[in-house]
Specification:
236 residues, mainly alpha, globular
């Protein structure tokens, strides 16, 4: 446990030296202020200008879903970038022959940040949400967002060879989040083409107020994480 704690502290120190990574950890708070205050103001301006009852407000549930994902994605993104930097500097391999070994390193770099991201989402989502969410829904959304963040981070590490590639892959990987958008706009059965994405089921669970839909989201997330983790371990 001490080795894991020291490894995580080393990652945190690296993050503090890199302003981009440090700012990424603050991004969920800034995004929260935008979602909570700017979007309702924009809605008021649009409905007043076009003399329509509602434009954005019917999709406030979608806004809450999309906000539940950035905290985890950002924390896991930072972890992935630090791991890629260590790979560039040829220091990552030395961690695997210490007391930490591969399992401990993965837990320190993904397990601990994921727990922090989960707790951060539980705190931030009730503050910045636009719709009435029950405590159970907040808990499920936080868990779903955390798993989504782990998927993005593992995609980055599996596909990327360096930090530069990692930045590009991150932008593409975050597109997996937008599976949650599909149920809101496509009502026909063609929407199930996107069903392998866990975020699709998160979107359906919140839109239709059926928490049971979170079950396939969690199962699919576990399958994605296991597959990507196996590929990452094979790569290193």
């Amino acid at each position: 446990m001490k080795a894991i704690r020291l490894n995580f502290c080393q990652m945190a120190a690296t993050m503090r030296r890199d302003m981009i990574l440090f700012a990424s950890c603050l991004a969920p708070i800034l995004a929260g202020f935008f979602f909570r205050f700017a979007i309702p103001l924009l809605e008021a301006a649009l409905t007043g200008g076009f003399h329509i009852m509602a434009i954005i407000s019917p999709y406030y549930k979608l806004v809450d879903i999309l906000y539940a994902m950035p905290p985890s994605t950002m924390f896991c993104f930072v972890s992935a970038m630090v791991s890629l930097e260590e790979k560039d500097e040829k220091t990552a391999v030395y961690l695997f022959i210490t007391l930490l070994r591969k399992t401990g390193d993965i837990f320190a770099r993904f397990g601990v940040p994921s727990v922090i991201a989960f707790l951060a989402t539980i705190i931030l989502l009730p503050v910045f949400k636009l719709t009435a969410l029950s405590p159970i829904t907040i808990l499920l959304l936080s868990a779903g967002g955390t798993l989504q963040g782990m998927i993005v981070a593992l995609l980055v590490l599996t596909i990327s060879s360096n930090k530069l590639e990692g930045m590009a892959v991150t932008k593409l990987s975050t597109l997996t989040i937008f599976g949650a958008v599909i149920p809101f706009f496509i009502k026909s059965d063609i929407q199930y083409v996107i069903s392998p994405l866990p975020s699709f089921w998160i979107g359906k669970a919140i839109l239709e107020n059926i928490p049971l839909y979170m079950l396939p989201a969690f199962v699919l997330s576990a399958m994605w994480i296991c597959f990507l983790l196996k590929q990452y371990l094979r790569k290193i």
